[in-house]
Design brief:
The chain is built from five helices and seven strands, in the order βαααβββαβαββ. The chain is an alpha+beta fold.
């Protein structure tokens, strides 16, 4: 069942959103992604003590958007040029149109800037979502992080203005 929240809105990321976004990232990896990754892999991907300076520069330097419902950040996405870097949705807001709204904003902005395609590195968990949106797997990848190997997929799709 598809549910679109009437009060869901997408707005640009603000530096004051940093803690909410980082917490959402951690919580999503340690709940939603546990169906595809082990607790050890999740800890390597999203450590309990995040590098806030890295997050600050990542989110500030890219085209970053947050999805807000009832005053709460329930998702975020960002992009650098044609590279779609992050897409995370709170565990309690999965399959409710949040990711779709964020992806449409990211893809629309990339197309408006004249990019012919958009690329991403999708997790095992996110791959089916991106495939439904027309992304194709370019290659399977193994990312080494904190002594763990995490599988993801380089994916891309054409976008048009």
């Amino acid at each position: 069942m598809k549910t679109i929240f009437t009060s869901l809105f997408i707005r640009p990321y603000d530096e004051g959103d940093l803690q909410s976004v980082v917490s959402l990232f951690y919580d999503t990896i340690h709940s939603v992604n546990l169906k595809d990754y082990s607790p050890e892999q999740s800890d390597a991907w999203a450590p309990k003590e995040p590098d806030l300076s890295r997050w600050r520069s990542l989110l500030k330097g890219e085209d970053t958007w947050v999805a807000v419902q009832d005053g709460r950040i329930v998702g975020f996405a960002n992009r650098d040029g044609e590279y779609f870097d992050c897409l995370y949705v709170h565990k309690d807001y999965q399959r409710r149109g949040v990711a779709k709204a964020l992806v449409e904003r990211i893809e629309g902005r990339a197309a408006a800037e004249g990019h012919a395609k958009i690329r991403t590195d999708a997790s095992l968990t996110a791959r089916p979502f991106f495939e439904r949106r027309g992304y194709a797997v370019v290659r399977r990848q193994c990312v080494h992080r904190a002594g763990q190997v995490l599988v993801n997929f380089a994916m891309e799709r054409s976008i048009q203005k």
